[in-house]
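Kindly inspect the following:
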Amino acid sequence: MPEERPLIAVTMGDPAGIGPEIVAKVHDTDELFKACRPVVIGSAAVLEKVVKDLGLAVAVRTVADPAEARPGRGGMDIIDLANVDLAKHLWGRPNAASGKAVVEYIKRATDLAMRKEVEAIVTAPINKEMMNAAGFNYSGHTSLLADLTGTKEFGMMFVGGGLRLILTTIHHALQDVPRLITKDRVLKTIRLAHRSLKDFCTERPRIGVAALNPHASEGGLFGNEEWNEILPAVLEARGEGIDASDPLPADTLFYKARQGHYDIVVAMYHDQGLGPLKMLAFGNAVNITVGLPIIRTSVDHGTAYDIAGKGCADPSSLLEAIRMASDMIHCRRKQGAGHP
């Protein structure tokens, strides 16, 4: 019989940020090993440094591939890419070299997942500016992972505080959002929401669709996106058998979703969705890339350079991301997928 605990790759994140610290801290708890068999992708030298600085009882062990991992409290198995010059490493001081390093971690983890040597990847935070400074022109993890896996339709889901939500538009100036709310974009997001809930063992998801304008535009008084773009997308989705609501005012939709009326909310823009969720679950929420052929979860926060190396970073979101990846794997297993 195969090992029941999933084999998961955890990327270290930006070497100059809090990623190494939270990765080290989760290895110093039994909770991590109850959820999975972890193998870290990163720099052994940086992780040894943070373990020593924090006085953690964790031994960093280098392995060549995930099959060699022997997980358990007191040990950290790492595939060491040896791509950080420790003599130049400074907490809170990122550079193009750290941007290059994080891409190498993500590429290795994705390759392992695509070859089914691990069942999911969980990522610690990176810095988009440094990644671009290193010559990798991506807006973040999501677009890089989509490129690496050849995925054309993908999205960002967030889970926390009793809410699940998916974003129709992501990192755009607010003034550009109305023109980006098109029937095709909204329909694609509704479809992604519907498909992605299979990884949560939800057979028939109830999808709450947010309006763009206040009061869902009051019949066109405050805008026309609801009638011209969002509702037509909803009607087409319903024709495909998807249970999607009419466009609903966001100020009440999130309350209804948290009360259990909907399994997921389709938010029209970044802060419309993440404002309510982070108010309820900041530091404990999980970011999931949906639409990929692999499972990828991540923390809900950034590199936090201001506290990097100070020993005060909270690993809760990383632990939640690992638990959620494990839960998603178990749902896929129930649906007949194999595992290493």
Q: What stands out?
A: The mean pLDDT is 93. The first helix runs from residue 19 to 26.
